[in-house]
Write a structure and sequence with these properties.
It holds the Pfam family Pep_deformylase. GO terms for molecular function: metal ion binding; peptide deformylase activity. It is found in: Plastid, Chloroplast. This protein has three helices and seven strands; from the N terminus they run H-E-E-E-E-E-E-E-H-H. By secondary structure, it is of the alpha+beta class. Strand 4 and strand 5 form a beta hairpin. The radius of gyration is 16 Å and the shape is globular.
């Protein structure tokens, strides 16, 4: 599925989409138009990421369902390296797995241990449409994998063990109730339905 120009239209300032908003589960389109709208979107995504003390952000997290992510492992404007990945794909990832405590801007104040490959090689385009490959390890690799999951409609709690998931289940249910109060509609998903579900594996396909 290829994005249209309208898919990159947005109103600033961008706002973080919180679980269980269905846009976090929607199909994310490939980008084939590399223009000023895309560059403006990237700029605004970095802006909201820094303002919310994040280190990574995917387009669906601001309600725009395209294959785009931005991140900066330092998390401070003007410091570290700002990375923009358009239409990313995973070439290979390490067999070595690392357990690390993750948070997510779409799950405010919720944290849990997630195991992921220590390193990953990816193919992507930059904001101008130039294709490139890059190998990432440690924190940059983890940020990428977390954001790449978002582009596949996978949320980080799906990669947690049942024991870890149980430790945050009440907080997830609080977000579901918050959604129902604010929208007047039933939550599109309920965390209790996840019990017994297999932990997500692999990186998904789009």
């Amino acid at each position: 599925m290829i994005s249209l120009a309208a898919d990159l239209q947005f109103e600033a300032p961008l706002k973080i989409v919180e679980y269980p908003d269905q846009r976090l589960r929607a199909k994310n389109k490939r980008i084939d138009t590399f223009d000023d709208n895309l560059r403006k979107l990237v700029h605004e995504m970095f802006d909201v990421m820094y303002k919310t003390d994040g280190i990574g952000l995917s387009a669906p997290q601001v309600g725009i369902n395209v294959q785009l992510m931005v991140f900066n492992p330092v998390g401070e404007r003007g410091e570290g390296e700002e990375i923009v990945l358009v239409n990313p794909r995973i070439g290979k990832y390490s067999k070595k797995q690392i357990l690390f405590n993750e948070g997510c801007l779409s799950f405010p104040r919720i944290y849990g241990d997630v195991q992921r490959p220590e390193s990953v090689k990816i193919d992507a385009c930059d904001v101008n449409g130039t294709k490139f490959s890059v190998s990432l390890s440690e924190l940059p690799a983890r940020i990428f994998q977390h954001e790449f999951d978002h582009l596949q409609g996978i949320l980080f709690f799906e990669r947690m063990t049942e024991e870890v998931l149980d430790s945050i289940r009440a907080q997830l249910q609080d977000l579901e109730r918050k959604y129902e109060v604010e929208t007047g509609f039933p939550s599109p998903e309920k965390i209790e339905k996840q019990r017994g579900k297999k932990v997500a594996v692999g990186f998904g396909k789009s």
